[in-house]
């Protein structure tokens, strides 16, 4: 099982292939935002990687980060826990002014079909 370390929270074992956004909520107990329900549209599920950043990303993540002009962050809704990783949870419900974190994301990556591209291209 991969180990997920969340800065300031702790280290947790997570099921292989689980979406990072769900691991943050379920295993780490983080009040992670996911306003669009994990469909790579809103960017509220942003995290910063400190170690173990995956080398690939979904084409949907790449496109929305490009459109928003964001760099140095990843969308936790588009990442699968397949290796040990350390992240900083930067998009949390506390202090956001939102009434809730958003609808729970599906267990499977969305939007379908999932297309993988190299990170940073």
Please give a structural write-up.
With 121 residues, the protein is α+β, with helices and mostly antiparallel strands. It has one domain (3-93, 108-116): Beta-grasp domain (Ubiquitin-like (UB roll)), CATH 3.10.20. Helix content is 14%, strand content 26%. It contains two helices and nine strands. The strands form three sheets. Strands 2-1-8-4-6 form a five-stranded mixed β-sheet, with helices on one face. Strands 3-7 form a two-stranded antiparallel sheet. Strand 1 and strand 2 form a beta hairpin. The longest helix is centred in the middle third of the chain and has 10 residues, at 59-68. The radius of gyration is 13 Å and the shape is globular. The protein starts with a strand and ends with a strand. The mean pLDDT is 96.
Topology:
Elements lengths: L2 E4 L3 E4 L4 E2 H7 L19 E6 L4 E3 H10 L5 E2 L4 E2 L3 E5 L26 E3 L3
Parallel strand pairs: 1-8
Antiparallel strand pairs: 1-2, 3-7, 4-6, 4-8, 5-9
